[in-house]
Structure formats: C-alpha cells, structure tokens
Amino acid sequence: MSGIARTVPLEPGLYLLATPIGTARDITLRALDTLASADVIAAEDTRTARKLMEIHGIHLGDRPLIAYHDHNGPQVRPRLLRMIEEGRSVAYASEAGTPLVADPGFVLAREAIARGLPVTGAPGPSAVLAALTVAGLPSDRFLFAGFLPPAGAARRRALAEVAQVPATLIFFESPRRLSGSLRDFVEVLGADRGAAVCRELTKRFEEARRGTLAELADAYAGTPPKGEIVIVVDRDRAGASAEDMEMALEAAMETMSVKDAAAHVAKALGLPKRDVYQAALARGRK
Fold first, then answer.
1. What is d(CA 143, CA 198) in angstroms, rounded to the nearest whole number?
2. Is this prediction's pTM over 0.85?
C-alpha cells in the first residue's frame, strides 16, 4: 500500500474517526491506519471519504463504502450494527471534524453501545477546539452550544438559557445568518461582552476576528462572509459570585502557588486581582 497508512489488526467494533475540517493533512496516523484496515467504511459523505483516502494513498479495494447520514440513518444503522455483530470492524467518518459533534454519528454510537458492541474513538480535528485555540478567550471551562435556531425569537430564547453560564460559549453558525445572530447576541448577552468570529478554520483564508459583540455585529452588518463560521463568546464577567471565586481558587490552588492561582482566577472570572489574592491568602492560611 502506498502512502503513510499501514494495515493493522482491528477487533470487531465501531471506530469513530475524526477527519480534517479543511487541510487534508490534519488527520492522525491512527485514523489513516483505521481507514486502511477496517472491514467496512461508513461515511456521512462518501465522496469526501473517498477523496481523503485517495489523497493519502489508501485503497478501498473490495471493501464496502456505505453512506450514512441523517436522511438514511433508520435504514442503514441496522445494517452497520449487524455487520459488527457478525464480527466485522466498521469505521465511521464524519464529513468534517469529530464524529457525534453536530453530525449523525450519535445515534449510531448510542445504539452500538446499547447492544454491548465495542465503540472506539480516534480523536483528531475539531472546529470547536480549533476556534477555542485561536479566539483568545478563556479555555479553562467552555460550553459547546451547537447551532442556534434560525428564527430570531427562538434564537434569543436559546441565548438567554446560556447567558449566565460561567464558561466560554461556542456556537456554529451559517454565514448568511451571522449578521442577525450577532445582533441577537448583543441584545441578549450585552454589547461589551468579548467574542471572536472564527471563519474557514485550517483553510487558506482562515480568519479570527476579535472584539466586543457590538464591534463584531457592526463588522458583519454588510455582506455575509464566506465559509464555515464558529462564534466564541466570553463568559458573563458580571455574574461571578464569592462562591464562584472560592470554588475556582480551591481548584487552582491544587496545582498552583497562591500568587499564580489568584492571577488565574481573577482573569478567568473578571474579578479584581487584589480581592482574589486576599481570598487566596486566607485560604492558604486555613
């Protein structure tokens, strides 16, 4: 076999493969080995899977390549599960990114687990983590909220549900809805809340535009941008309580000095450094 993939023995089971979200080389060697070795390959988009295999020199041979997506799931799932029960290894590749994150693999994995079948993940590319990496916002705690509802009223209700979650918020959004969504973000979450709009991650025209929600809403008020969009929003800095501070300090001081823990918690919760440092000193004397 040409390329860098190698054939390895695979036990019967379901193998969930993360695939590139843009650059084809953003795939792990383990995922390539699994694609080269699985008895059956299922893919959200068979054209994408076939192209990825061709790029990396993996030959399909006489192995089945089966489309599995939202529209055919009820018909195809039983077939895939039966193949595993018969002793075959089935690799499932999402169209882009990590399986089960905004993709139809969840029900397949859940039903495999319910039947007592082995389920193995081969981690790799993720738009959620890629955006969090470049957004410049706290990464110690985050909530992935998926796609927001397309209608304005429903979208605002969904935002209100997570508005005070003490974590960085991450959303997927379509380019054509970005402007309207950002206006709703300003209305529900506040104009001055820090955020980043990450576009075309890992691709040639990757962009991460950072600022307040008001600034980003103004920046995208005109022509919709092109490409895949991830919105990252800072936590509510006005909502941190004394209890939040104490809990954060307790966790931070397990691995950090008093000074470093205080600085970390003050930055994460948006609290005055002096107040957090005094609380850390008091905790250290207990």
1. 16
2. no
